[in-house]
Design a protein that fits this description.
The protein is α+β, with helices and mostly antiparallel strands and about 300 residues long. The protein is about 15% helix and about 35% strand. The chain is built from 6 helices and 13 strands. Strands 1, 2, 3, 4, 5, 6, 7, 8, 9, 10, 11, 12 and 13 form a 13-stranded antiparallel sheet that branches. β1 and β2 form a beta hairpin. α2 runs antiparallel to α5. The radius of gyration is 19 Å and the shape is globular. The protein starts with a helix and ends with a helix. The C terminus is likely disordered.
Length: about 300
């Protein structure tokens, strides 16, 4: 099995929830070498848990809050509240629980397939992914000294591949306008399961988004003195999409203030159709070396 296929299978395994009651589901986490569960994983699993309680409708919007850091060594229980089943729309609320406490909440809305008016922002003109290089997230000498489980998740053989559509370097950041665009693609083919594709789109949408708020300040998480953590996540699905083809993530950040940064995103498919929009706010703090509380990641 190649490195790419191994990481792909590991990602799909995370999307396989165990149903333990009518509205209760349980998921596992992947150890990526940190003390926290990746927020996109919890988001995607919550979307799947909600989707498992809805028939013949697809998620079209979600609003989520990250309440506590997830424990990668403990299973996560997803408690789904069937808030409303209407003629056209269905509402669900999901609480993710670990060690008896909520770590995450999700409100989601589902809709029957419907025809209507259409318009969309055009996809910006950027080089195609074939003309771009794969993003290196860490210097090679640092990467080679990381645990093997983390290497698999971060290198170019991970489940996703990212390519900058315009210049940016996490190793040598300089102040620049708060805009960026990057291509991404899942390494592997997926079945024609709309719920799975939308859950995985939520998963990958948590990458690179709130970091857009750091661009005007010329800082990067690689420097080691930056604390950045997601507070919430909103997403709207406009059209069906496939995760096993290239998509373009266009991000901007309207504001950073009060130790928080706001970022917005638009996701286009290879043909230029806008398939989803996102918004996220996160904590952004410069950590002082003597501040032990910040070193521990206190929010």
């Amino acid at each position: 099995m190649t490195k790419q296929s191994q990481s792909f299978q590991e990602l799909l395994a995370l999307m396989e929830l165990e149903q333990i009651e009518d509205n209760l589901f349980r998921g596992v986490s992947r150890d990526i070498g940190t003390r926290r569960v990746f927020g996109g994983q919890v988001l995607a699993q919550a979307v799947l848990a909600a989707s498992r309680t809805v028939a013949n409708r697809q998620i079209h919007s979600l609003h989520a809050y990250f309440l506590r850091a997830g424990d990668p060594d403990a299973r996560i229980v997803y408690d789904v509240d069937r808030s409303r089943d209407g003629r056209s729309f269905t509402s669900r609320r999901v609480v993710a629980i670990q060690h008896g406490r909520p770590i995450f909440t999700l409100a989601a809305s589902f809709q029957v397939e419907e025809e209507g008016l259409e318009h969309e922002f055009e996809m910006p003109q950027v080089p195609p992914p074939e003309e771009l290089s794969t993003i290196e997230l860490l210097p090679r000498d640092e990467f080679d000294h990381m645990p093997q489980n983390m290497q698999r998740w971060l290198d170019r053989f991970g489940p996703f591949e990212f390519r900058w559509a315009h210049g940016y370097s996490v190793f040598d950041p300089v102040p620049q306008p708060p805009f960026k665009a990057l291509w991404f693609k899942l390494h592997g083919e997926l079945p024609d399961d709309v719920a799975l594709h939308r859950a995985l789109l939520a998963y990958v949408s948590d990458f690179h988004l709130v970091g857009t708020a750091t661009l005007p300040h010329g800082i990067s998480w690689v420097s080691g003195n930056l604390m950045i953590a997601s507070l919430d996540h909103a997403m709207w699905y406009h059209r069906d999409s496939r995760m096993d083809d290239w998509m373009l993530y266009v991000c901007d950040s309207p504001s950073t203030s009060s130790g928080r940064g706001l970022a917005r995103g638009m996701i286009y498919n290879r043909q230029g159709a806008l398939v989803a929009s996102t918004a996220q706010e996160g904590v952004i703090r410069i950590r002082e070396p003597s501040d032990d509380r910040e070193k521990k990641g206190s929010g």
